[in-house]
Amino acid sequence: MKLHIKNLILIAMMALVTIGGTTSCSSKKKMAKKEYEAKVEQAKKDLNAIINDETMWTLEEQKARVDEIEKADFQNPEIDELIVKAKDKLNRKIAEEARLAEAKVLTSVNPNQIDRIEIDTKEEVYSAFLDETGIWSLENETDFEINTYYLNSVAAQLSALTASDIICPIAEANLADYGLDDPITITLYAGEQPYTLNVGKLSATQEFYYVTMEGRDEIFGVSTEYADFLNISKNSLKSIYILRNSDSAVNSVTLEAHGETVYSISLNDEGIWTMQYPIET
Q: What is the pTM of this model?
């Protein structure tokens, strides 16, 4: 009798364990199904947002999300169709970005090929050429010495110039609104090939200059990072150096004021500069 009772208790416990395990397994399946359904709905939501331009994600982030959904392989025909549409939308966006990036390139030439620069500052026209020694010289007579280092920088910076924005078509613009009715004009020559920039006024935000390029149909915004090479004046072209690297024969320098020496240095026999006045070293 006791053995029979023990067997009944054991059977009951096994039944409880079995029922509990079955219940637990069923619960896990329900949870997995809910998670799957939630992921499917989120995938649909994200794909539709990408297709309808309703997301703040960057193109890179959008592409990564589409790839993530595709790799999840939900085996869902609706999601598969949305993936195709999203990929098509992103490919068109990427192509448009590439087109705009190319359209913003104003010049792309080897600066070493620039051998002549013409600058119309609105007050005066200056024409400079690169001589056989690699030094810039002015063709027109001036009352100042040219800053050849500055013109090297102009050639280097403006030979590879990219606009930060495309403002509008020239045909739709009043050039006076952009200061382009009377612009500063800068022309770089690579041999016989000219590259002409017309520089207008600063934008209201002072973030860029309005610029047009000969042969192009748009007004561009070029960053004020290039201000020193776009807003060129007579003072920009003047040499700021008292002595040049080529003045290697100089062995003493004296500064006078009102007929009196205020500063004097000289090169000693060891090639070291020493002061003679006001203090001898």
A: 0.68
Minimal CA–CA distance to 90: which of 41, 38, 52?
Answer: 52
194 phi, psi to nearest 5 deg:
-90, 150
- Sheet of 273-277: strand order equals 252-257, 260-267, 273-277
Could you tell me the two tokens for 146?
A: 């040219």
Rounded Cα distance, 148 and 159, in Å: 16
Phi then psi dihedrals of residue 119, to 5 deg: -130, 120
* Residue entry with tokens 């309005």: 210
Nearest Cα neighbor of 195 from 225, 159, 228 is: 159
Residue 50 vs residues 54, 157, 176, 204, 236: alpha-carbon distances, Å:
6, 39, 41, 34, 50
What sign results for the dihedral spanned by CA atoms 132, 133, 136, 141? negative
pLDDT digits (tens, 9 = 90+) for 2-57: 545 555 555 555 554 454 555 555 655 665 788 888 999 999 999 999 999 999 99
Residues 6+ away with beta carbon under 8 Å from 74: 36, 39, 40, 43
The Cα 200–Cα 175 span in angstroms is: 9
Query: What is the rounded CA–CA span in Å between residue 57 and residue 188?
Result: 41
Give 167-172's long-range contacts (Cβ < 8 A, gap of 24+): 167/210, 167/218, 167/219, 167/220, 167/221, 168/218, 168/219, 169/217, 169/218, 169/219, 170/212, 170/217, 170/218, 170/219, 171/217
Instruction: Round to whole Å and give the CA distance between 126 and 119.
Output: 5
Q: Give the chain's end-to-end CA distance (angstroms, integer).
A: 123
Cα distance between residue 119 and residue 127, in whole Å:
6
